[in-house]
Amino acid sequence: MHAILVEADDHNDSPPGPDALVWREVPDPAPGPDEVLIKVRAAGVNRADLMQRQGHYPPPPGASTIIGLECSGTIAALGDGVAGWTVGDDCVALLAGGAYAEQVVVPAGQVFAPPAGIDLVAAAGLVEVAATVVSNLDVVGLVAGETLLVHGGAGGIGSFAIGWAKHLGASVITTAGSPEKLEHCRRLGADHALSYRDDWVAAVSEIGPVDVILDPVGAKYLSDHVQLLARGGRLVVIGLQGGRRGELDLAALLARNGSVHATGLRGRPIEEKAAICRRLAADVWPLFSDGTIALTPYETVPLADAARAHARLESGEVLGKVVLAVDS
Q: HEC states along 12-46?
């Protein structure tokens, strides 16, 4: 089969750019016990993929070194002990790695059916964002009547978070970087869409304290986020785009009876990921199928041209997701 590999220039000290992604022939994978082989139809592109290419986000021990955390496709083979699937069935999967390839092996518990009525290319870009948002908002217990602040409302995570939070009955404040993206957030249901190019901290303060903050930025916003929390507020850090080390004012956190959570998805045990996949299939996929939550917008790029997809995502011009499609 063919897959996308990272071929860095050993004479260049800078992190590998998009051009380091190359289409190469690699050995065919085979499923082991309790695993499924998927013929990939499409793979979602995530910020974590860019970090892995740059050498900042290595895969967990034992995971594929090929980039890619989500895919859609058809069942190609079943390992021993796998039941409930037939070769040729459509599926989606949550991965620890390996999606940028024509085939990928996945633990059977992390493979499930796509949302009814949603084509496989669109479905490939839903898995990671939904798993990330739902699992983290479950941790901090966002409920009806509370207020959620989520950054990057026009991206994959943010777009879904707006719809999911509104489904739960929460109010949503979000940030984005252009008038087009701010309008997109409002169409999705955001109650307040603020430009991060302006003083968004002051704007959020005027709206009022925030119960839950879903934060992909990390250190850069840590101090501001603590100051914005309501009494009993919860900050959940899901990414480190703004750095990994920040100063935490414990007195400010204590005064609010607040809490800070930091949770990852990729390195969780198989059993936890399987439970998340069951949650998506039961409680989230029907909301995409009936239109309660709008599909995340996406651009399609051929898998072999993954370099262009990474360049597009890094440009900051993408509305929603980029999805890599394998020629059918």
A: CCCCCCHHHEEEEECCCCCCCCCEEEEEEEEEEEC
